[in-house]
Amino acid sequence: MTPIRHLILAVASVTLVAGCSGSNDELRQWMADTRKEMKPVTATLAEPKTFEPFLYKDQNEIDPFDPGKVANALKALSAKSNSGLAPDLNRRREPLEGFPVDTITMVGTLQRPNLRYALLRADGVIHQVKVGNYIGQNFGIVTKIDENEVVLKEVVQDAAGEWVERATTLQLQENKR
Questions:
Q1: I need a labelling partner for 90 at 20 to 30 A (CA). Which of 5, 34, 74, 96 fits?
Q2: pTM exceeds cut of 0.90
Q3: Mean pLDDT in the chain?
Q4: Does residue 27 belong to any structural domain of this protein?
Q5: pLDDT tens digits, one per residue of 52-85
């Protein structure tokens, strides 16, 4: 660089610095006025709610959280039950009892002299069942096998806890290719 360029650069720098060093009184006055006019807003917090613990005073009454109360209620309900219907919980479970009925599909039948089998698919495996076999998770027993359907009698609990029977059918599923 030439000395003239150095001189021009130095003069320009001094001029810039001189322009910035002016009085800031007007700016300071505006900031002071703004601070006086602005009032900080503080939101008041609501008083916290006080917690009053409940004291159970009826020591002579039955405790509503006592497990014995539930057991007594179940005994009373079972005493009212007059149907006498209940599944055999001590028998050996069959393979198709591990699947819900709505996941089992009927795919065909086999006929032997005096005996008909239904072919049922569960989890990709074909099973043979006959009248008297158990199917599904609701203690369903096969009562009838036709060419197009399997009729089941399931034993389920109703809202009151009583065992009731309900009929269910599995329809033959056509092969979709």
A1: 74
A2: no
A3: 83
A4: no
A5: 887 767 767 767 677 777 777 777 766 665 567 7
Domain of residue 150, residue span: 95-171
pLDDT digits (tens, 9 = 90+) for 148-170: 999 999 998 887 777 889 999 99
Task: Give me the number of domains the chain comprises.
Answer: 1
Q: Is 28's pLDDT higher than 70?
A: yes
Asked whether residue 158 is domain-assigned, the answer is yes
Q: Is residue 122 part of a domain?
A: yes
Judge whether 74 lies within some domain.
Answer: no
What CATH number is attached to the domain comprising 167?
2.30.30.830
